[in-house]
Amino acid sequence: MDFGLREPVILYGSSIYVVGHVLLSLGAVPFLSYPIRSSLDFSGLFVIAFATGCIKPCVSAFAADQFTEDQKDLRSQFFSFFYFAINGGSLFAIIITPILRGRVQCFGNQHCFPLAFGVPGVLMLLALILFLMGWSMYRKYPPSKENVGSKVIAVIYTSLRKMVGGASRDKPVTHWLDHAAPEHSQKMIDSVRGLLNVAVIFCPLIFFWALFDQQGSTWVLQARRLDGRVGHFSILPEQIHAINPVCVLILVPIFEGWVYPALRKVTKVTPLRKMAVGGLLTAFSFAIAGVLQLKVNETMEFPPSPGRIYLQRVGNESLITDFRNKIDGNLIGDGMLPKGRTELDAGIYTFNTGLKNESQEIDISIQNKGYVMAVFRLEQGVKVVKFDYKVEKTDNGATRVFVVSAKDDENSLVYAINKKGKILSSCELKSGSYVDVIPGIISDPNVRLYWGPKNNCSGIDCPNTVSLNAQMGAVHVLHIHPTTTEQDFNLLVRPNSVSILWSLPQYVIITLGEVLLSVTGLEFAYSQAAPNMKSVLTAMWLLTVFAGNLIDMMISGTRLIPHPALEFFFYSILMVIVMGVFILLAMQYTYVEDNDEEITITESEKKDVIALTEIESGTATTNDKKNNLSASFLHIACFNFLPFSLEI
């Protein structure tokens, strides 16, 4: 996008963005029909994607345009604090959105997605208002009349056409783009040359984003298998990602105030050197993630082998004999099915109970499932109860407790209640029903289960109770009978036992890589572009994010590497190789300043800028500029709330 059009594009793009929020929020209302909700969801995502394409390539370039030619050092610091504002918004989103979604109930549901999408909409509207408040103080350039995109294509096409046609063999040139002369001006040719040179440098950085953006995908999946309890505090899997913006908010001032000045005293600190170190740190962070995953694998609950199932036996019947497959008649072991979990081939089984050898049958033929089989000895005979469950850890840090009883009673309820007497979850006293104990931000893992007739009690006043140590990821089954105790819990899925704090090193290191590479990349894209190419090159920088996500889809999304630890190590090795290529390219790169090729605005354009600024706002004071940039930072922070909300 050409300079001069940035501020109206940001304005209109922000307005469209608000509409996208409204559509997403409406699409999350549960009582609407599925076709309407789907239409609103996809429309909202499309509108937001379109608005993002309008805003993101322009906002950083527009803000950097507010600095004059003699403020290059300040402009370099601006990109760091621009990133600081981005992460301020993302930190707010990462902390608040899971709470709005999972801790607030609305429209009769346990989750409130309309609120989770609606709050970012309100903040985006606030961002738009803040942007308009500084409108009269912005330094604006007059829009150019030329179409930069078509000019770039035309220069490349002309050069290739002449090279292929051999029209310029007798005219040696220093660069293949010089073949575009005299049809195109030397200024435009130089601009396109600079654009392509930076584009080549950007290509390896696609893989940085392929790794970095997994903080919101594969790293969250890893966090779901970690124990998020830290004392009385609970960290949800999605909230661990908050470490990233927190570290950015801490590290950016440290690097700008102390690290970079200290390094400049001993060596030359260039953007490409910083980006290379950042890429290598990112590779190291994934190696750490791989090592952590190996430890997590030791605590995982692996599903049954293909074609087999898990059978968990509970109940008060003590004698089960002649347990065999009904189809082939093969006896399982010695025929005495023990209590606890047994792995069997999926199928239909017969067995005898008690001293009278009462014949029973059970269908457990759905492969790769877990089954609970409760065998009860009652006065009127034997009762067999069966239900299935997923052999995997719970999400969202919950502890799940299935109930099983010889006498189902839909008029009785089971309550999970914390020490403050708050009901966390409830279900009918019916075999196969369950309660989920989801930890709060501050919560005690010790809760109690109460049950009784719902007409006579409603929680802690119920006559029956048992204590539960709620461990993240665990799944239990509780046999409820007149004298139930803690001994009647049976563990179906092991809890998460590796502390989530062990993931801190990988988050800190990848954030170091981000500060060195991503922050510097924005500055590099702006500083190396001609004035009429700054938004184009910024858009190209953002395009590397898109390409990196495509790589994620092709590798992680398709489960090309089925084992998470191997996948992390693969990404780490790949990033080291790619950064080797990047370093080789960087060694050949010549900075625009070093080559005296920086393209400045023409004198006529400068006059237009001065005239336009004087007409709109007069001569701006230093305080006006500070207020202007403050409004811009607040706009950026609010604008960056939604992308992280969508991840969560």
From TrEMBL:
<keyword id="KW-0571">Peptide transport</keyword>
<dbReference type="GO" id="GO:0006857">
    <property type="term" value="P:oligopeptide transport"/>
</dbReference>
<dbReference type="InterPro" id="IPR000109">
    <property type="entry name" value="POT_fam"/>
</dbReference>
<keyword id="KW-1133">Transmembrane helix</keyword>
<dbReference type="InterPro" id="IPR036259">
    <property type="entry name" value="MFS_trans_sf"/>
</dbReference>
<dbReference type="GO" id="GO:0022857">
    <property type="term" value="F:transmembrane transporter activity"/>
</dbReference>
<keyword id="KW-0813">Transport</keyword>
<protein>
    <submittedName>
        <fullName>MFS domain-containing protein</fullName>
    </submittedName>
</protein>
<feature type="transmembrane region" description="Helical">
    <location>
        <begin position="536"/>
        <end position="556"/>
    </location>
</feature>
<feature type="transmembrane region" description="Helical">
    <location>
        <begin position="275"/>
        <end position="294"/>
    </location>
</feature>
<dbReference type="GO" id="GO:0016020">
    <property type="term" value="C:membrane"/>
</dbReference>
<feature type="transmembrane region" description="Helical">
    <location>
        <begin position="9"/>
        <end position="32"/>
    </location>
</feature>
<dbReference type="Pfam" id="PF00854">
    <property type="entry name" value="PTR2"/>
</dbReference>
<keyword id="KW-0472">Membrane</keyword>
<comment type="similarity">
    <text>Belongs to the major facilitator superfamily. Proton-dependent oligopeptide transporter (POT/PTR) (TC 2.A.17) family.</text>
</comment>
<keyword id="KW-0812">Transmembrane</keyword>
<feature type="transmembrane region" description="Helical">
    <location>
        <begin position="44"/>
        <end position="64"/>
    </location>
</feature>
<feature type="transmembrane region" description="Helical">
    <location>
        <begin position="113"/>
        <end position="135"/>
    </location>
</feature>
<feature type="transmembrane region" description="Helical">
    <location>
        <begin position="568"/>
        <end position="587"/>
    </location>
</feature>
<feature type="transmembrane region" description="Helical">
    <location>
        <begin position="194"/>
        <end position="212"/>
    </location>
</feature>
<keyword id="KW-0653">Protein transport</keyword>
<feature type="transmembrane region" description="Helical">
    <location>
        <begin position="76"/>
        <end position="101"/>
    </location>
</feature>
<dbReference type="InterPro" id="IPR018456">
    <property type="entry name" value="PTR2_symporter_CS"/>
</dbReference>
<feature type="transmembrane region" description="Helical">
    <location>
        <begin position="242"/>
        <end position="263"/>
    </location>
</feature>
